Structure formats: structure tokens, C-alpha cells
From TrEMBL:
Identification of the protein by name: Uncharacterized protein
Basic residues biased stretches: 49-59
Annotated segments matching region Disordered: 38-60
Amino acid sequence: MDKNYSDSDLDLEINIDENPPTTIYEDYTTTYNCTLETINPQAPDAPRPKRPRGRKAKKSQIEIDTLQPFIRGSGYPKKEYVRCKIIRGQKRAIRHALKNNIPTKTIHKVNKENEDEINAWDVFAKHTIDNSEFFKEISKTEKGPKTDGAARRDSNCISCDIQKSFNDVFCAQYFNNDLVVENYKFYLDVIFSYMVPENLINRFDFSCCKLGNSKHSSVCLLKWENLRNYLKEGMLKDLMWNPENFIPVEAVEILDFYEIIDE
């Protein structure tokens, strides 16, 4: 049966005859030595998993037992929050003492009508003033991590070795001095001189229970006593017993008292 071809069909047949298509044959004879170790299980365009940054801080049992019974927001206060509050507070209290000021605000506020608070402050202030040259240097905000005193730093002189926060390394360096530790314990005596739960809630900005006001029990008081003991002893032991916290960090090294005097 004859077919009727159009002009375009005839042109196509002529073109195919003159330029026959090339057949491409794949070579399946080549072999490759592949093992499971050399095969990448990820898809070519799949994003690479991010490696965790920095060291994950380990929690000691005493830290867990002390802080988890408290309430802050929807959780409990983390040790970084507590350490930041305490170290910043100590530095601020040192500046108050060197100026002969009795603080009426912040975590170490002193009620002039409370004899225990006044006595505790006098002991702290005397220790600070007796070592005024040393503590004048220590109390500078730019002596803290990068999160502190940023406005007073020369951006061209910030060492990459300065810790970014109140992490274990910074805190271990900070407390690696007998004068600082002794002054710190006097400072805690100021904060805890009036051991009433509601007073301590206002100072620390976290609570020992959900009831509040005058409904605190002996359990609440025990929580605050445990916190005081942890801050005085347990926290320092956690920092000092871990050798990883003593990486040489020139930027946060606390100078010896006599080195500062000689400058």
C-alpha cells in the first residue's frame, strides 16, 4: 500500500540517510575495587553534618543535686547563670567597697537595719581594702570574658585566647588565687547573712518552690543552705579538680599580688 509523503517527511528521510545516528555502546568490562569503607553513604548534594563546637561541660552530681531542685522559668538555673551572677556581683561589690559605698541594690544589697548583713559587709570590705591594689585590678569589667566590658576594650587588642563566657576554663583561672577565693567566701557571707527564702529569691532571681511568700517550708531552707555550701566548696572543687580547665590562657591569667604592686 502506497503512502502519501509530504515534502517535510521526504526532507527528514533524506537527512537521516545522509547523517545516520551514531550508536553509543557502554563499556561494562572495566572493574573497580570498592569496599564499604570507600563508599560515601551520603547523597552528592546532601549537606554535611555539623560538628559540635567546643567542649560539652560535664555536670557533677553535687551540681545536679544542688541546682535542679530550684525553679527558674520553665526549668532550673544552670551553673553558668549562677557563676556569672556571682562573679559579676563580687567584682561589683569590690568596686563598692573600694569607694566606701554600702550597696543597697543588686544581689549583695545590704540592709542597714540588719546587723548580720552589716557585719558581713564590714568583713568583706576590710579584706578588699586591705588588698586594694590587687582587687582594683581584678574588679575591672574588661578583665572578664568577652561578654563583659566590651565597650571598654580596644577591639584591635582583643586576644583570641580570651574566653567568650563564664565557662569552666575562665572560672578556674579566676579562682586560681587564694586572695580571690578568700574574698569570694566573704562575699557569699554577705549574700547569705539573712537566710530567709524570700530574701534569697529576690537576690538570685530564681525560686525554691512554686508557693512563695510565707508558705516556705523547712525543705526550702535546706535548698538554700545546700546552694550556699555548693557555692563555697562544691563549685570550687569541681573547677579545680578538672585538669582540662587549666589550659594556659594568658589573657585571663590573674597576676600575682606582688607583680601588680611592682608595676
